[in-house]
Amino acid sequence: MRRGLVAANWKMNGSRESITELLHGLRQSLDTGAGAQVLVCPPMPYLDLCSRLLQGSRISLGAQNAHEASSGAFTGETAPGMLLDFGVSHVILGHSERRQLFAETDVQVLAKCLAVQAQGMVPVLCVGETLQEREAGQAEAVVARQLDVVLEACELTKLVLAYEPVWAIGTGQTATPEQAQQMHAFIRQRVAVRSGAVAENICILYGGSVNADNAAQLFAQQDIDGGLVGGASLKPAEFIKICKSVSG
Ligand code: PGA
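Above: inputs. Below: predicted complex with 2-phosphoglycolic acid.
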């Protein structure tokens, strides 16, 4: 039985004050009792604040990106070891916003995954097709390409996958539970080619306009093990409801 995971991707949002308030609210509801694993991924400057505010909490700390090098002349970048210094356990990599806005390639995403794993942290690898690719009947081929590069070289037992159709991110246009399940089954099958046992246990999240109203139906699908939540993760009541709709 796979353990559910809900990850909050706050993207470039929040302030010292709003994040303090948000985490206070999340801890009040989510620290009591068991349930799915919960991860919050703040903007880099707030990692230290969050790491202190999460002392003794069952909520884990994640990051939204990392550089592939361990140090050097990379102005504005963050090395995986620096994230580890703040108690980061997971790093979102290959998010479509980074692939599109910063032209991150599959090869670069792989390098980042390897660098993050080398520090003992878990990459949350995002894959997903654009609307144009879906309409051209290429959704599976695109996802397979993004996935295979990483599956070939990474330690599969220390990896979380996230299917995020680009057309569903921040648009309010969620994939239907059937559409999402179909791609999740395809992704799990892709992992099974390499190891049946890993495929059984690997956590595959769905992301793209998840909210308190659609979460339960999505998470009820056989191959959907939780969510990667953007907009709705900034609203405490909504995010708590989403977390509670995943089985622990
Ligand atoms: P959204 O973002 O929930 O706001 O659609 C999800 C994501 O980009 O991870």
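The two ends are 10 Å apart (CA to CA).
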